[in-house]
Amino acid sequence: MNTEETKFLKDLDKQLWTAADQLRSNLDAAVYKHVVLGLIFLKYVSDAFKERHEELEAAFADPKNDYYLEDPKDRAKELEVRDYYLEKNVFWVPALARWDFIKANAKVANGTKLTVKNGKTFQYTFNGIGKLLDDALGEVEKDNTQLKNVLEKNYARMQIDSILPSLIDRIADIPFHHASLKAKDILGHVYEYFLGEFATAEGKKGGQYYTPKSIVTLIVEMLQPFQGRVYDPCCGSGGFFVQSAEFIEQYADVKHYDADTQRQKISIYGQESNPTTWRLACMNLAIRGLGYDLGKEWADTLSRDLHPDLRADFIMANPPFNMKEWDSAVREDDPRWKYGTPPTGNANFAWVQHMIFHLAPQGSMGLLLANGSMSSNTNNEGEIRKAFLQADLVECMVSLPGQLFTNTQIPACIWFLTKNKSARNGLRDRKGETLFIDARDLGYMKDRVLRDFTPEDIQKIVGTFQAWRQGKGYKNEAGFCKSVKLKDIEKQDFVLTPGRYVGAKAVKDDGEPFEEKMKRLTAQLMEQMKKGEKLDKEIKENLKKLGFLGEKK
């Protein structure tokens, strides 16, 4: 995006979050999240429907158009034919759920009879804006099978009718028209921004559904999912899928392809165990017009795999760190445990092996794990890690700085694995090699609690990885990156901590001989110590004069 577009979105973010936060006095973030995001979703599907409605209206009235209809009554009937909308991947929105109708009737008195025209005319009795929203969302689900069980229909039960009209007015003011940004992109940005802000507000709980965008961007740009099957077995709110689609759009001009056509070349598969988070993901993808298969419902991935036959080209995930008691419904002879049975007390290597099992023969994967996964030897973990390396699966290890996540202070790393390190599609032969990147010194503190990567940080890591894979201009850099042979990893007992391999960062030589520098620094230290002793003596004398030291009278 250019500077003007970025400023437009940042101003919009600030305006909307400030407005929403002012209305949140009676609800915590975990509840209010669904109130706001549900309304944003309804606004999106309604706006997209309205835009298509206006296109059809113009086409039906144009004698030069193939859709031309002479009789205005016929035009009115055709405008309510669902197929015209579905052919353009636009959700069908019943009249009760259209934003203009909801906004116009959000403040009427209970018991008011409303006339609804939806091809046919019927009466609707208003019994609160919360009830109207629940009924509207129910109608949207009924008429769009892809959204079955997806939308949160709890507005009436939350008893927040007093704040809903004001919130509806605020969301109605979102300027979804911009000279160069599409309405879909603006709304998608707003949805993603709100997810991030709510995750921060919820703290530890929020981290269960939201991975920081810079980390998602880093993994996506390293794997480069231009086409194929993309899988996330613990998909949260769908951030990796959204970023994959944005990655394709970002490189459209560079790669000389049509972004919309190319986006159709990726197939999205995912799974999520939390029902509310599963709904967030479905809405997040639907807003962007992305087709997806997240299963017909939510389910625990390790105990109930909804995609048992899937072999994905790209797998990206942020599974729960160090999850305990994960295997209560998992067989000990599960075919996924090819490299060793994961310990009951830690699911880290269960997640890794689940993803390897679902990886296509030419596929690549990246996942976040706690740092302990790189070195732990307890309960068979060391043997499993050794088996990964001996099978030549580990392509790259990236250690991350602390304070990147809202839900944990546990230091983290990224594992990149592939089933084929042979030369192919512009990549060199990397068999028997692993790249180690120590990124702990990168990033900046964006506030007092959280750290983040800059675009330059991301490009440094991505550029290093791609140069190593392609054999174009890669060099080991002390303190940052090193390409290591399996035999050298074996000498380190198969520990995968990058700091063990990349060494210390090179210190710039200032030209001063070591012995002379030591003499100079030692002399400076002695001088400072003498000054310190003199200051201590003066402080004691002053305290005595003030009566704070010595015997009490």
Overview of the molecule:
The chain is built from 20 helices and 12 strands. With 553 residues, the chain is an alpha/beta fold. The strands form 3 sheets. It has an 8-stranded mixed sheet. The longest helix is centred in the first third of the chain and has 33 residues, at 29-61.
Pick out its properties.
alpha/beta, Rossmann fold, two-stranded antiparallel ribbon, eight-stranded mixed sheet, Ferritin, globular, 3 domains, 553 residues
Reading off the top of the CATH hierarchy, the class of the largest domain is best stated as: Alpha Beta
User: Which percent range describes the beta-strand content?
Assistant: 5-15%
With strands numbered from the N-terminus, the spatial order across the biggest sheet is: 4-3-5-6-8-7-9-12
Largest sheet: 8 strands, mixed
Write the layout of secondary structure elements.
Layout (H helix, E strand, L loop, with lengths): L2 H20 L6 H33 L10 H7 L4 H4 L12 H6 L8 E6 L1 E6 L3 H15 L11 H4 L5 H9 L10 H20 L10 H11 L4 E5 L6 H12 L1 H4 L3 H5 L2 E5 L4 H13 L24 E6 L30 H10 L1 E12 L10 H10 L3 E6 L12 E7 L14 E6 L5 E2 L5 E2 L2 H16 L10 E5 H6 L7 H4 L11 H32 L8
Parallel strand pairs: 3-4, 3-5, 5-6, 7-9
Antiparallel strand pairs: 1-2, 6-8, 7-8, 9-12, 10-11
Quick rundown:
With 553 residues, the chain is an alpha/beta fold. Helix content is 44%, strand content 12%. The chain has helices at 3-22, 29-61, 72-78, 83-86, 99-104, 129-143, 155-158, 164-172, 183-202, 213-223, 239-250, 252-255, 259-263, 275-287, 348-357, 381-390, 455-470, 486-491, 499-502, 514-545; strands at residues 113-118, 120-125, 228-232, 266-270, 312-317, 359-370, 394-399, 412-418, 433-438, 444-445, 451-452, 481-485.
